[in-house]
Every structure is written in structure tokens, then in C-alpha cells.
Amino acid sequence: MQLLNSKATGRAVGQRREKTLAPLQPLRAPLASSSVSIAQEDRGKLATCRAASPTAVVQPTRELEAARDPAEPPSTNGGDRSHETDYVVIGSGIGGLCCAALLAKYGYRVTVCESHYLAGGAAHSFAVGGYRFDAGPSFFLGIGGPPGDGSPNPLKQVLDAVGESVETKKYDRWVVYPPEGGFFPNIASGSAYEATILKHGGPEALAQWRALDKAMKPLQTAAGLFPAAALRGDLGVALTGARFLGPEMMGMGLIAPLLTGPFSALVDKHVTHPWLRAFLDLECFVLSGMTARDTLCAEMAFMFAERNAGRTAIDYPMGGSEAIISALVRGIEKHGGRVLLRTHVEQVVMEGGRAAGVRLRPQGPASASASASSTTKPELIRARCGVVSNASVWDTQKLLPPGAAPEQWRRTSLKTPALDSFVHLHLGIDATGLPSDLECHHLVVNSWEQLTGPQNVIIASVPTVFDPSLAPPGKATVHCYCAANEPYDLWAGLDRRSPEYKALKEERAAPLWEALERFIPDIRDRTELKLVGSPLTHERFVRRHRGSYGPGISAAGGAGWPGPKTPVPGLTVCGDSCMPGIGVPAAAASGMIAANSLAPVWSHLKMMDALLPQPGSGGAKAAAAAAPARR
Ligand SMILES: Cc1cc2nc3c(=O)[nH]c(=O)nc-3n(C[C@H](O)[C@H](O)[C@H](O)COP(=O)(O)OP(=O)(O)OC[C@H]3O[C@@H](n4cnc5c(N)ncnc54)[C@H](O)[C@@H]3O)c2cc1C
User: Fold this and answer.
1) N or C: which end of the chain has fewer CB within 10 A?
2) Are residues 366 and 425 in the same domain?
3) Do 104 and 58 reside in the same domain of the chain?
4) Element (H, E) at 103
5) Where are the beta strands (DSSP E) in 166-280?
6) Domain count, the chain
7) Where does the Amine oxidase domain start and stop, copy by copy (predicted)?
8) What does the pLDDT average to over 401-430?
């Protein structure tokens, strides 16, 4: 099927002209320079948005497929995309799609606007020359079980809620290449993990590890007991969370400050062994882009919980990260929502001090006449209930007209520290003679001292190990990158077509080649396709301020991550700039929390009834059995 291409019809991804939406009609309001008015007679509708009319189920009409190939013809100036909906979601990252899917499930009319020609944000996949690459994440936990399996992963919970699933290959390890040479498997299970610590750190490190693990147990219990699906950003959480406040939660009040503080609070107490401290910092860095000093203890509690759960929990989605994005898009569409690609939001439209819609950037001119029409006809999407931004904390501010937001909030948001960016190497290689036991994930550490330094930690994956269909027969795909450690300033202001830019790409990709040679020594000879991505690539394709991995909000700083609510009426936020932070599960949780916060409490409770095992039920017992803290 054709991924959305608003082309001539101005319709969404896999969208047929649906009966449930109000007929598309251009808004009559004139476009002002900084803000746009919405027609007077429509204002009353804003007040009634909470009583959103349930939408009829619309079956998906297309599969996400060919349009993801860059060979797809460029966008043409299609029909007018203006229409009216309940919520507009700006951005189709994991957070935006999860939020939109749940809002649609709750019965709201939802339109997702995505700048890119592919959905997924950092988690999009793309195809070149018969190879299919994950642009970002390829490491997923707990997304592949049967519906209602009690997975604590919020992404899985959203998929369950909208009746979608992803086929995955389950596995249990990745390989670490430390600076002292050699390599060792890092196995995602408690006892195997202990064996690694004993081998590399010795008995003292193991004893300290066990003390830390013991200290983490109550935190794992607390983190596991309160599912993201029960969270919302208002007082309604007293009702939706009440059913999880059983006896097991008694005493958890004492634990809350530890959970919301830095992981180092526990590490400093129990671990002095230098190798183990560095190894724990490494785990934190690959999760949050920061060391134990700044990483939220709750994030680590989930990781400990998964590791101690005694199940093979790492999942590679068949078809790559695109399979997850496709499932979320299907979930949106089948509940009557739409995902518009190549649809860049220029500005949030304010009406009476409230976010009431979005103004779109005119689509690229395919002809002189198209160009003329795109400049004379502003396209507006009116959102009766409000706007949700999945853009980053910095980029959301750029979308607000002057004066729309309180100055202090605007300034604080813009001052949020940004983690560094990326260099990527995407390769299509000849797979002839590759070892049959080649692992998918590899983590190279060049120095334990400068852990977060530029190009020090390098991550690589060979997803064709699990899914050969991602490459032509006899070939393999490789994705290698430095995450959160490439300084944007090295690249700032460079013209992407200039020889300087091309030379810098080669220079900065050199350590990635060396990292790959640790496990495929003849990788250069095997390479048939090479793409180097820079911070500018990331900035452009994911529309991220300075191509950042995300906000560097320290758990030690006390400020905390922002929730879904903003001081701008009608504007909600989600994505990895929000609580609980960076990573696929966290971004999914933020989307879920945003949608829950916008839904009436009774709808939220109903969703939870369908989704989460009731405490004391058989499902709950099964989930409890799987949860480490209750074993
Ligand atoms: C290379 C890499 C590897 C990673 N590896 C992992 C991993 O293995 N496991 C893991 O859990 N996490 C990983 N992460 C982190 C994880 O992928 C991200 O935290 C998460 O996907 C971010 O989702 P998000 O909801 O914040 O949206 P984003 O991905 O930031 O998407 C936001 C979307 O909004 C769109 N947008 C912005 N402004 C506008 C506008 N004005 N109009 C229209 N659209 C707009 C953008 O185009 C973009 O598509 C990785 C990230 C990267 C980059």
C-alpha cells in the first residue's frame, strides 16, 4: 500500500475518504502573520470537545510499504488539507503515534501531521537499493508477546489497546568490546549477568553488585506495580491509580524519592569497584545518554526488573522498526484517525488564548500553478479539543506565536540542556561467509575514563541476523552509530553539499569503521552501499534542535522532566522531552499519559479494565509471577 502521500487527494496514510469526519472545508479565517483566528461561529465547539463523538471503526485500507523508499516521487501540491478534527498531533514519533492511537481509541477524531515523508520520527525505517535500514532504535524489550501478556512496556500496552501486534524474534544478548581488548556477551538475565561481572570485575565487584541488586529490589517492585497505562497528568490519577495501591505499595512512599532521584544515590552507597562503576555508567549512558550521576533511578529499576525477570525479553521486530510504526499507524487509522505525511506544521493557531489548530507549511510546488495556489491558500487544521506537540521541547516553542506562552515557561524550555548528537553509518554488505553465530547487537567502548566523550561508545547492529528480508538475498544490513556523543558545533553551519561537509563525514565515520572491524574484520571489502548520517541529517529528518539525542535533564538537578500539561490552554506535549524521558518505552509512556490526561476519567478507567489485569485476577497473578519483584 502507499504510505500516505497527500498528493492529489490531500489524504492521509492509507486514508480513504472517511465518513466519520466532518467534510473537509477550508477555514474561512484570514491568516495573520503570527496567529490565526478561527471563525466566530465555530468557537462554541471548543467548549464541547470533551464530549467527543465516538468515531466508527474504519478498516485500514493500505499497508505501509513502498512509499518508504526514497525512490518515491517527491510530493506534489495536492488538494487542500484543511479540515476540522478533535485533536491535531504534531509529529509522528513513537510518542505522537501512541498518543494519537489512544486518542482515536478513546473516540476522538485525530489528525497526525508529520513533516517527513516517513512516519516514526527517530524510529523510522528507510529503504535504499533493496536494503531496509532502521534509522534509530533497534533494541526493544517486551513488545512481542501475545495481547494482554502483562508486559510492562507502555508501547506494548498501546498496541494491545488498539488491537495491533508486532511479530518479533526473541533473543537474550549483545556483545561488549571493552578497551582492555577481547569481548564478552552481555546476557539479559540475572545469573548470566553475574557471571560476566565475576569474570571481569572479580569477587569484590560481584559482592558489590549483589548488594546493589538487593537495594534495587524494592524499587523494582514499586516501578513494576504502577503501570504507565494508569497514569494521567491530572487529579484523576487518584482514581485511575487507586486500584494499584494495594498492600504491596505500603511503605513505597519512602521509596519514591529514591525512584525519582539519580541512580548514583544507590551506586555510591554500594559500589566502589572502579570497573563495576564504569560498567554501570555504561548501562546508564546507552539508556539515557547520561551516566549514573544524572540517570533517573526509575529507568534503571525497569532495566533491573527486566533482567531479573528470567525471561528472554529482547525483541527484534520482523521488518525492522517500521513494523512497530506500521502497527501504530494501523491502530490510528482503524479507529478513524489519519496520519498526514509531508505535512509540516508552521505554527500553532491560537484562538482566545487557546491552542485551537495548526497552520501548515504550503506543500512543495510541483508546477508554477501549484506554487501559485499554495501561496494564496493557507491550509489550516482546526482542532476543536486541542493540539498535542510531539516535537522536542525546543522545537515546540518555535511553533508557538509570540505571546502565546508565558515568558518564563518559554525561556525555561529553551534553556533545557541538549545532549549531543549522532554520526551514523548505514551499510549494505555482502554476507557471504559471515559467521553463522554472528550476534545482532555490538557495543564498543574505547575508554572507561572518557565514557561519554566524543566517539567513545559506539553501537552497531546487524538486523539481517534476525530478518534476512531486510536485504537482498546474500546481503546484510549494518547500522553503526555514536549516540549522544557527537558535538553539533563541529557541523553547525556547514552546507550539506559542500566538499567540507563530505570530508567531515568521512573523518567522523572513521571510528565507526574501526568499531565494525572488531567483529567483521573485512567489512570495508564487503561494503556495497554506504550512507553516512551526521547531526545535520538527524536535525533535518527528525526535526530535532541541534540533532540532539534528547534533553539532558539530570535526575540530580531536582527540576525533573515535564509532564503532558503546559501553561498554554489546549496545548499538551508528549515524546522524549517529557517524563519519563528518552527511549522507545519512555516516549510511548509519555504518549499514553498525554492521551489519558485528555480523556475523561471514566473512559480511561474503561481502557484500563480492558488492558490491564485486575489486581487479584488470574491475569494479574500471571503478570505478578512474571514480575521480578514479586517472585
Ligand atoms: C540512532 C538512535 C538509536 C536509538 N536507539 C534506541 C534503542 O535501541 N532503544 C530505545 O528504546 N530507544 C532508542 N533511541 C531513542 C528513541 O528512539 C527515541 O527516544 C524515541 O523514538 C523518540 O520518540 P519521540 O516520540 O520523542 O519522537 P521523535 O522521534 O522525536 O519524533 C518527532 C517527530 O515530530 C516531527 N515533527 C517535529 N516538528 C514538526 C512540525 N513542525 N511539523 C510536523 N512534524 C514535526 C518530526 O519530523 C518527527 O518525526 C534511539 C534514538 C536514536 C536517534
Assistant:
1) C
2) no
3) yes
4) helix 94-106
5) 168-171, 173-177, 184-187
6) 2
7) 299-597
8) 96
Q: Distance, CA 535 to ligand 1 centroid (Å)?
A: 14
Mutation to probe ligand 1, out of 316, 344, 390 (largest number of atoms < 8 A from CB): 390
Average pLDDT for 476-492: 96
* Ligand 1 atom at minimum distance from 587 CA: 25
Mean pLDDT of 544-550: 96
Give per-residue pLDDT as tens, 256-286: 677 888 999 999 999 999 999 999 999 999 9
**Do 526 and 580 have their domain in common?**
no
Query: Ligand 1 pocket: which of 98, 114, 462 to mutate (most atoms <8 Å of CB)?
Result: 114
**Cα 362 → chain centroid:** 27
Are residues 506 and 430 both part of a single domain?
Answer: yes
Separation of alpha carbons 212 and 477, rounded Å: 38
Looking at the structure, do residues 5 and 134 belong to the same domain, yes or no?
yes
Q: How far apart are CA 167 and CA 323, in angstroms?
A: 8
Secondary-structure percent of the chain, ordered helix, strand, coil, rounded to 5: 40, 20, 45
- The yes-or-no verdict on residue 108 having pLDDT over 80 is yes
> Which value, in Å, is the radius of gyration of the alpha carbons in the chain?
24
Helix (H) or strand (E) holding 592: helix 584-598
Give pLDDT, residue 303.
83
Q: Is the pLDDT of residue 321 over 90?
A: yes
HSE, side-chain direction, 13 A CA sphere, residue 582: 27
Spatial separation of the C-alpha atoms in residues 13 and 101, rounded to whole Å: 14
pLDDT tens for 189-215 read 778 888 889 998 999 999 999 999 999
Q: Measuring CA to CA, which residue among 226, 219, 199, 311 is closest to residue 270?
A: 219
Ligand 1 centroid vs 510 CA: distance in angstroms? 25
* Protein residue whose Cα sits closest to atom 38 of ligand 1: 391
> Which element (helix H / strand E) includes 89?
strand 83-90
Residue 282 lies in a domain: no
Predicted confidence band of residue 59 (pLDDT cuts 50, 70, 90): very low
- For residue 23, the model assigns a pLDDT of 30
pLDDT exceeds 70 at position 118: yes
Task: Tell me the pLDDT band of 623, cut-offs 50, 70 and 90.
Answer: very low
- Cell 502573520 belongs to 33
Are 74 and 28 part of one and the same domain?
Answer: yes
Q: What is the pLDDT of residues 493-535, one digit of tens each?
A: 999 999 999 999 999 999 999 999 999 999 999 999 999 999 9
**Where on the phi/psi map is residue 338: left (φ > 0), alpha (ψ -120 to 50), or beta?**
beta
Is the whole-model pTM more than 0.90? no
In a domain, 270, yes or no: no
Q: Is 88 in the pocket of ligand 1 (CB under 6 A)?
A: no
Residue whose C-alpha is closest to residue 12's, from 117, 165, 93: 117
Domain range spanning residue 328?
1-138+320-416+562-599
CA of 346 to the centre of ligand 1 (A): 19
Give 233 Cα–ligand 1 centroid separation in angstroms: 22
Do residues 436 and 506 both lie within one domain? yes
Between CA 300 and CA 310 the distance in angstroms is 17
Whether 409 and 425 share a structural domain: no
Give the domain CATH number at 411: 3.50.50.60
Q: Is residue 508 domain-resident?
A: yes
